[in-house]
User: Fold these one by one.
Assistant:
Number 1:
Amino acid sequence: MSHHTYIRDLGANQYVDGVYAIQNCQLGQTKTGKPYIKCLISDKTGRTPGRMWNTTKDLFRQLPTDGFVFIAGQTQPYQGEMQIIMEKVEPHAPTDQELGELLPTTTFNVDKMFAEVLQVLGSLEHPALQALAGTYLADGELMDRFCQAPAAMTLHHAYLGGLLEHTLQLLHLAEASLPHYPSLNRDIVLFGLFIHDLGKCEELLWSQGFAYSDDGNLVGHIARGNLMLERMAQACQDNPEHPVKIPVPILRVLHHIIISHHGELEHGAAKIPATPEAIFIANLDNLDAKMNMAISATRPNTAAEQDKSLGGHFTEKIWALGTKLYRPDPTTVTEPD
């Protein structure tokens, strides 16, 4: 990987060959009925669309839907975004060194973020929620996975440490917003945000690339999160040193937060948010997820990325947001003469 060309450094009409992650690999069909491969090609610095026009169904069947491949091809600007037109693509088993280049990782310090989560949970005042938080935190394996897991496969915070980053961001947003809604129960909101996505620790895999586990495909993070909550509540009650029974109304509302945090039935919620705290959490979750997608697509982190012209002010359509996005900060755009 010593000569690996990062996605963020790709220029127009540049030859590319090397090992990359492939995501959402699909077989499409041209207007003339010929098969072609469409996918996302990524490494730890970003991702970009990939296309292979001259292909066969047999080649497509050899490729992972989500995994790692060796590719060779040419970059091509298209509608304001760089894409890779692949001439060659084949499955690849990455070395540990290659994995370090391919899997994106949070840019923030994981230990510091987790310490901030602990600080927020340490401020809970209700005894039952204090006990429940302590039981979750005492599960070292779960907390290790919480600190490592991505928040999603491809959409938002899709990088190692992304779940922790997303959760902490939500806690910060809640702490800043709660003074404006004094009737909301602070403990329920903060604890609900902490647990709302913990089922993703079982839903997702990330040691060999990002993928859904069998549990993720068959159960999913919402159902798993509720089962986890039941287990933790029972552990509180069975604690031999300091047993605490979680009141049913509290437990019921926490279950509701988990099953409703996607906001809409068509977006995966099992119930529409039906408490003030659940509505607050669902909307904060939606805000942070969409802002992460929007900023990642339009406002890159480095000056080099920001200066790179890809031939337009708009991204390709981002399906999760339902639109193309305008890239520039409008205060930096020069009006034409």
Note: Residues 276-298 form the longest helix (23 residues).
Number 2:
Amino acid sequence: MRVHFTPGPIRSGSVRVPGDKSIAHRWLILAATARGTSRLLGLPPSLDVRSTAACLAKLSGPGRPALEAWAGNAGVASEGHGSTWNPDRPETPDWILEVEGEGRSGLVEPPDDLDCGNSGTAIRLLAGMLASVPFTSTLVGDASLSARPMERVAAPLREMGAAVRTTEGHAPIKIQGGYLRGIVSALALPSAQVKGALLFAGLGAEGSTIVTEPAATRDHTERAFAALGLPVSVEGSTITVRGGSEHQGFSASVPGDPSSAAFLVAAAVLSRVELSITGLGLNPSRLHYLQILSRMGVRTRTTVEREELGEPVGELWVAPDSELVGTEVGADELPLIIDEVPVLALLATQARGETWFAGADELRVKESDRLAGIARGIAALGGQADAEGDDLVVSGVGLRGGVADAQGDHRLAMAFAVAALRADAPCDVSGMEAADVSFPGFLSVIRELGAAVGPAS
């Protein structure tokens, strides 16, 4: 889908964003492996989360249809299982997904492959969970996911005792699960997905599983475990989980996704208007991009109002008077802003001076080669950016307008769309449908805020 954007500011206002998909993946797995009923409010109807729900539906057997119904009808109200999230009326999600769990022992061998779609989080977290159940399963994905590296999760799971076979280091992944023993694993690369997979596997292992990160990553898995009373401890960069424990069903409301919010923050900054984003997840491990924005001259404020399964939730406010300046983003910061680099880079086209993103090689193995895709997209819109080795350098010379291809990547699609608000001339973005992977209704939200969005001629 090719969409036309006419430059111009959005209006000031207050908005919400769909639920955090990183959290939703984890809570769905915890609901399916709990003992008793879990009730989840505010699950995002994104394609990635639907993939996780569909996989869990196959693993839960025919007696528990709620997951299958929700996965197949997200976005459409259906017997109480469908998402009715609506950007025009987001303040009161009126549905609850109820999942009846029987613990890990209640999972069944799937009748066919488990399709994770485009979701790296789904395939890696499910691999960890499946490593401890006594049957064979095969995890597959689309062409993009099948090109992403999977040995980084398969190798430590083998060390724990699971039989895991990848396809030349990629998906499909075939797992024969069963008895696992705890291990001590020092991750070579910072990855919340790999860390989460090992912690999920560790719940079903004998003894303790100890994971040390080379740099901090998002900590949703640890927070949820602790909130459910599971034996997890965190000391600096080392996380320990003790196996042999189960958890009971729970009720929780998924907070808004801070990575999705980043695109609306950028739209407000480029428009120089005040914006409030409510009901947002304010987990510190997801908000480092606000520190980058502060260095670039953007003022924001967060207010925590409540907690959901260990996750702080509240409001993010964006000031209307930002004057952007370039900055340097170190390689040690990249793991904490890995999802926000595209929109930060497009913001940098309007900043005074240059902005450097160092050590961004992990961007080459996301949904697309984002490092190259960002540079190509900025050039296509009349700006200047260079991918120099593993670094990205963006010059603040503005955007003249043009046509950018999102290459099937949801974050590139939304970053190019937001950047078009401040271009010198109209911009077209092809592949905008990819936004539904993480932010269903994105175009509706920015249109409601006043962005001039229409079909390309």
Note: Residues 47-60 form the longest helix (14 residues).
